[in-house]
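Summary for the steering committee. The consortium agreed at its last meeting that each partner would contribute one worked example illustrating the joint modelling workflow. Our contribution is presented below. We chose a case with several input lines so that the handling of multiple components could be demonstrated. No manual editing was applied between input and output; the record is shown as generated.
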Amino acid sequence: MTRIRPAIWVLMLSAIALATAAVVIAMAGSGSSVASVGARPAASQSVPTDSASGGASASDSIDSDQASAGFDTRTDATVLPVQDVTMTPVSIAIRSLGVTAEVGNVGIDGLGRVDVPRDVFRTGWYQYSVRPGSPQGSTVIVGHKDGVDQGAGAFFALGEAAIDDIVVVTTANGTKLRYQVVARESFDKNTVPLNELFAATGPHRLTLITCGGPFDATTLGYTDNVVVTAVPVDSASGAS
Amino acid sequence: MTQRNITRAGAVAAAALLPIGLVLAATPAGAADDATVSVLHGIPEGLGADVVDVYANGNLLIDDFTPGSLETATVPAGSYDLGVYADGTTPEDSDPVLSADGVEVPAGINATVTANLDAEGNPALNVFVNDTATIAAGEARLTVRHVAAAPAVDILADGAVLFSNLTNPNQDLASVPAGSYEAAVNLAGTDTTAIGPADVSLEAGANTIVYAWGSAADETLALAVQVIPGLGATPDGVPAGDGSTTGTPVWALGLAAVAALGLVGAGARLSAARR
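What follows is the complete predicted structure of the assembly.
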């Protein structure tokens, strides 16, 4: 009886092992994209009714009432602008998704991208975007979906946000601002409309950004950005 | 330093004023033929301009304009005759107290016209182009304009000189990290503070334009601020996930590596044995 050579055993076991590993790797890499629903408010340039920044202004926002001219003028404040740090966001909650997290201030990382907090349980307000409660523009809050050594992050469930979900943002002075989800979208990172999402103009909105879609093992990151847009509750209900 | 009532000085100003050349530096945005023109009333009270009306090409532009105020209008590109009229008077029945003819406004420009005192205290009109070029993310643009009846000044931010020896009617500007600063206007080359110090927030992505206006002799020096927002560059991306729950488990990668070595090794041994 011919003894099967050890080398052939090794060959067979290796082939089985490789097939097993390949299946696991293939399954792991096939996260599905988040379907997009809803519609974001347009971020088009709007003529601001109040060009003063900060909370210390006492400007009028009415147009001058000269009918004869045909000139459309507005009055602007001329006081020194000061930061209204009382409206800096400090926490965020989306009860329907079980999301609750602290919000810190974040800026730009060494590669010109938003410096997302390394701690996946914390989220970050992009500090160069408008504060919650501003008269116009997008307040951007970002968070990791998950981390390789931390597990699911605060924004893990963002991909399941539904239209009309309520988002509550608490600011430094304890003000709670309520926003209502109007869109949940997924974009390939190469085509995400960053200019619109980070615009300082257009109707005031809350823009929550995390990652999603398939995991790309070559870049060790997700291929998509998942974006949830919410508008102040008053404006949402007023539109209906 | 003599100061003359604006009604007598008007004729002189009209003849002597030449608008600063407007260079189309801004990328036109919005309607192709429009420009944004702001007007700053920088003539202190008590000089005959406490309440004025501003006309452009004979049409009313600003009604009941008062010191320290800023008005902004969208206007068609073109050439404008600007006239400042005492309250209640019109181009039909009166001469302007201050005027500038033939001010060229190119399409897409963003500019501010100031009615202010010159260094000697005489009323004047000046035109400044506002820089609306894109500002790097996290940065703010600070523009300072000396339109006061005062000598040369230094501009300080958090105690350090940012602009030195600025004179009327000139400006200086720089890009600085966004944030709050303690601003002060000192007499040039000295520690004597003429205006301030005062806290000012320089918003990221905005051109914050600070005007030093008024009269040093009359102790009416003050700061007026115009903010042009929405100029900031967008970040290059949001890298918000390096994966774990859907990432490739390390053990699978390890198994694949060992299996590949096994295949190679076994295959080599088998092919060697055949010879």
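The domain at 34-43+85-239 of chain A is CATH 2.40.260.10 (Sortase; Chain: A;). The longest strand of chain A covers residues 176-188.
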